[in-house]
Each structure stands twice: as C-alpha cells, then as structure tokens.
Design goal:
Layout lengths: L2 H12 L6 H15 L5 H4 L4 H4 L1 H12 L1 H10 L10 H16 L4 H6 L2 H29 L4 H12 L1 H12 L15 H17 L7 H22 L5 H11 L2 H22 L2 H8 L1
C-alpha cells in the first residue's frame, strides 16, 4: 500500500459516522456485559437476572452505554444525565438491550457467542473507542490548554469509561465488589487508552511528524489489535513493559539486590559453621 492510498484509507476511517452502526456495536457489548455478569443467587435464583429484575438490568445497561458522557460531564461539572437527553440514542440502546436479553430463543445472545460475529462487533467497538478518545483529547486541549495531565486523564476515562462505571452498574444490580474497581486492576483497555491519549497529545504538540489522519488510523488499528490479542489468546501486550518498569523504578531491582546480599550472607554463615575450625572449637 503506497502512502497516498494509506492516507485516503486513513481519512475515510477518520470520517466514519459513529451513529448508528458503531454506536450499536458499543451498546451491544455493554448490554452483553451486563447480561453475562455474575449475580448473587438470592437476586436471580435459577433464572436469568434480566427476567427477574428488568428495570435494574436496563438502568445498569444504560449506565455502561453512556458511561463516557456521564463521567465526562461529572469531571466538567455539567449535568450528569445530559447524555441521556438524546432520545434517539437512548431508544437505539434500549432496542439493543431488549434484543440481547429478550430475543426469542435467546437468539441474539447465542449469535454474539459465535466467535466471528463477536470479533466483528468488537472491531467496530474499538474504532468507536478510538473516536471517543480522539474527540475527548481535542475537547480537553481546547478547554484546558497546557494541562496535559488532565487532558490525558480525560482521554483515559472516555476510552475506558464503561470499565470505571462498572462498579456502579454492579451496585445497581445488587453486586458490591470494591476490590474489582478498575483503578486497582487496570485492564488492557485502560492501558491502551493511556497510550492512545499520549500519542494524540504528542501529535498535538507536533512531536509526531505524520498527518493527523494517519495517527488516528494507526491508533484505531492499535485498539483493534490489542482487543483481538485479548479475545483470541488472552494476552496482555503491556505486561512485559509493566514488569520492566516495576523492576527498574518501583523497587524490583533493589529487592533483587537485597535478596542476593541476604543469600550471600546466609551462604557465608553456613560455610563458617561447617568449617574445620568451628568443629575444633566445639570439641574443645
């Protein structure tokens, strides 16, 4: 692929309209996440949770579907429920929620378990994620120029909003698991959103000498790649870098040196204990 074709492809990807297809893919995965969550038996018994508590299931699904707007408005001091004023989006999300949970013979849910279908929906969702991070970075740079830490945090929250909102969704559905909060155990999505936010900021500062369309397209491909790696092979590509960083800067190297010194001291003490001179002293 020559540079001109690549630029045309990247431009076309950047100009994709998110509504309705990419939004539907996002809503589908969010509703699927709520449906497949682990609920206490006292709330669901032997039946599906959505059949026993449809209102709670719907509210939880809408929280995840519009998590990016809700968290963004919370940070900006705007009305938290403003994302829900778009009635067409709420209606589409509700139709998706209904089909995922109540389609005849559970057909939609079974279809989404088919690997090729799930991969296609996931790829659409990752393109949607790249768009959300890009738009949030541009918005934050416009409103908070020079505050790059805040801009980066804003991009991370928009890219992984549903994961940060998950604890509140589970609380609505009767699950309280504070140990599973996203900031304690960052997922591959949160880490990917961090990297994407940094790259968009570097492009804004002109440290990356490439057209904006190419950077956007590269980040969209990058999101798709890490999602496919995680879905197909359960691989977190960030783990080696995390381990190296922790070893060098978060005490791992010092702990290794300490263990080596302690082991050497123990070896010397054992050697002195077993030396002939020590046996002779004991005999005397």
């Amino acid at each position: 692929m020559d540079s001109e074709t690549l630029l045309e492809t990247a431009t076309a990807v950047k100009r994709f309209r998110m509504f309705p297809y990419f939004d539907i893919a996002h809503y589908t995965l969010m509703c699927l996440s709520v449906k497949e969550d682990s609920y206490p038996t006292q709330f669901s018994g032997q039946q599906v949770f959505s059949r026993i508590h449809p209102l709670s299931c719907w509210f939880g699904s809408m929280l995840l579907c519009f998590a990016g707007g809700i968290l963004g408005n919370l940070l900006l001091g705007e009305p938290v429920l403003e994302p829900l004023k778009n009635e067409s989006s709420v209606l589409v999300a509700t139709v998706v929620w209904y089909l995922v949970n109540y389609a005849p013979f559970d057909g939609v849910h079974k279809l989404l378990q088919f690997t090729p279908v799930k991969l296609i929906v996931s790829i659409l969702n990752e393109i949607f994620r790249a768009n959300q991070v890009h738009r949030s970075i541009l918005f934050a740079l416009k409103n908070f120029p020079g505050s790059y830490l805040l801009v980066c945090v804003f991009g991370i929250l928009k890219g992984s909003a549903s994961l940060h909102m998950k604890i509140f969704q589970r609380l609505l559905c009767g699950i309280w698991q504070p140990s599973n909060i996203e900031i304690l155990k960052p997922s591959v999505v949160t880490k990917g959103s961090l990297v994407a936010s940094i790259l968009f900021i570097l492009k804004h500062k002109e440290y990356i000498d490439a057209p904006g369309e190419i950077v956007y397209f590269g980040i969209a491909v990058y999101f798709c790649a890490i999602r496919l790696l995680h879905l197909l092979f359960r691989i977190d590509p960030f783990v080696p870098f995390e381990n190296l960083f922790c070893f060098l800067f978060l005490g791992g190297l010092l702990d290794s040196i300490k263990r080596a010194i302690t082991k050497d001291n123990a070896t010397v003490a054992a050697a002195n204990k077993n030396s002939p001179s020590s046996h002779k002293t004991k005999e005397e």
